[in-house]
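dumping this here so i dont lose it
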């Protein structure tokens, strides 16, 4: 439906899943990007099921291009909110921090280290709940590393 973001590793589009009749985010691997890293991201996220982690619905390849089907988060990012230039209320900051800490604590307990927590990877759903996304450089404990 619409391109949401683009970077050196991938591009993300909003889309509609015709089979399940729901809006989703479709993450496509960039043509020159590292396939192994994309595979590792999908494997890391697939291990996780938490209310504050963006859900992975599907992973595959179409016409030779790997993709992930993810939960579509329409509430923007923490980066967007910070760019607005208005302070975030203390109570809202505490809620965001607690939800983020809950997600990261769960991921760590499951053996997944995110390693790229930043405002643009902290997304919000339509109810303004935190959802951490983009496990592109995550490290799975006991798995070989791809980055230093």
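and the seq i came up w/
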């Amino acid at each position: 439906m619409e391109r949401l973001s683009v970077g050196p590793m991938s591009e993300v589009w909003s889309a509609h899943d015709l089979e399940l009749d729901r809006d989703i985010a479709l993450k496509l691997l960039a043509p020159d990007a590292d396939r192994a890293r994309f595979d590792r991201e999908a494997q890391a996220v697939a291990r996780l099921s938490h209310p504050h982690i963006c859900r992975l619905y599907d992973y595959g390849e179409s016409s030779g291009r790997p993709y992930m089907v993810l939960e579509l988060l329409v509430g923007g990012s923490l980066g967007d909110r910070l760019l607005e230039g208005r302070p975030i209320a203390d109570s809202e900051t505490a809620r965001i921090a607690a939800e983020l800490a809950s997600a990261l604590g769960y991921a760590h307990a499951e053996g997944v280290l995110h390693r790229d927590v930043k405002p643009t990877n902290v997304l919000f759903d339509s109810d303004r709940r935190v959802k951490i996304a983009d496990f592109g450089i995550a490290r799975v404990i006991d798995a070989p590393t791809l980055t230093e």
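The longest strand covers residues 10-17.
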